[in-house]
Amino acid sequence: MFNKTKKLVLATTTLITLNSAIAMEHHHMNQTIAEKVMINNPWVRSAPPNTPMLGAFMEIHNNSNQAVKLLSADSKGYKRLELHKTQYEDGMMKMVKQDFMPIPAHGKLTLKPGSWHIMLIAPESVPREGDTVMIDLVFDNGLSKTVHAPVRKAKKMMGNHHHMMH
Ligand SMILES: [Cu+2]
Predict the structure, then answer these.
(1) pLDDT tens digits, one per residue of 111-142
(2) Residue 24 within any structural domain of the chain
(3) Nearest to 152 by CA among 48, 47, 50, 38
(4) Domain of 93: which CATH number?
(5) Which of 2, 32, 110, 126 has its Cβ near the most Cβ atoms within 10 Å?
(6) 164 part of a folded domain
(7) How many domains would you assign to the chain?
(8) Global pTM value
(9) Are the C-beta atoms of residues 70 and 137 closer than 8 Å to each other?
(10) Interval between CA 25 and ligand 1 midpoint (Å)
(11) Band of the pLDDT at 160, cuts 50, 70, 90?
(12) Domain extent for 130
């Protein structure tokens, strides 16, 4: 009887130790990815005061061994944020809503006008040049980051005569 109880206690202890080891490992993994995913040069393109939506751009670097997905974005003062990609379809440049943005292992994803971007929809008030927009990014693996994106004009792009259809 004593032996049986002791075994049970031992088994429970082992299980708890194992569980916390797994939890620690998981925590460690997230911390590592958080350090290895970096956002460079975030910015929001300035727009007229009555604009219904604004584009946010940045470089997302992933220096980890695992692919990472940007799942969603959020910012106070906007109805919602969407992940978009501008692509050529049926002879037109179109913005297509994406479920996520993929950032390859040891790679980067560049969000820029005419390509991947975050769409800030229905601003309570349109930010002015020089303002900063705080954008919360949620990745898979439980990773989240807040970026501070200054509002500025787009740099002129050579040969860009397309007007985006919103
Ligand atoms: Cu868009």
Answers:
(1) 999 999 999 999 999 999 999 999 999 999 88
(2) no
(3) 47
(4) 2.60.40.1890
(5) 126
(6) no
(7) 1
(8) 0.76
(9) yes
(10) 38
(11) very low
(12) 38-152
